[in-house]
Amino acid sequence: QVQLVESGGGLVQAGGSLRLSCAASGRTSGSYSMGWFRQAPGKEREFVAAISWSADSTYYADSVKGRFTVSRDNAKNTVYLQMNSLKPEDTAVYYCAADLAYYSGKYSAGYWGQGTRVTVSS
Question: Hey, is 106 helix, strand or coil?
């Protein structure tokens, strides 16, 4: 089992920045890809970004490309999401995930955090 705990959410004005962190514990010896999803009010959870174990590959949803950056520090068992140029439509609960898979055009994950809320005011 892998436990994931997010932090760094909050309220920010449009155009501002936030950095989310996700600390992994438990069975962290596995070479897991990690990533972020989000769920806005009244909408389904959607993929945001992913990063491979070695950090040599990253993937982003079109809606965040050029504004968000995913990174990881395996020595600290932590993954980050740097969010710049935030928009009101980025308002959502952001979930950290581990052991991602891509199948039939969709991402899924084996492990999930509890989520951290990000609110972007206009």
Answer: strand
Question: Do residues 98 and 37 touch, judged by C-beta distance below 8 A?
Answer: no
DSSP state of 89: G
Residue-wise pLDDT for 110-122, tens only, equals 999 999 999 999 9
State how far the Cα of 81 lies from the Cα of 36, in Å rounded to an integer.
Answer: 8
Which residues, in sequence order, are CB contacts of 39 under 8 Å at separation 6+? Answer: 45, 46, 92, 93, 95, 115
Q: Quick check: 72 and 79 in contact, CB under 8 A? A: yes
The count of other CB atoms within 10 Å of the CB of residue 71 is 14
What does DSSP assign to residue 85?
S
For residue range 40-71, what is the model confidence (pLDDT) as tens digits?
Answer: 999 999 999 999 999 999 999 999 999 999 99
Label the pairing between strands 116-121 and 46-51: unpaired
3-state secondary structure of 36: strand
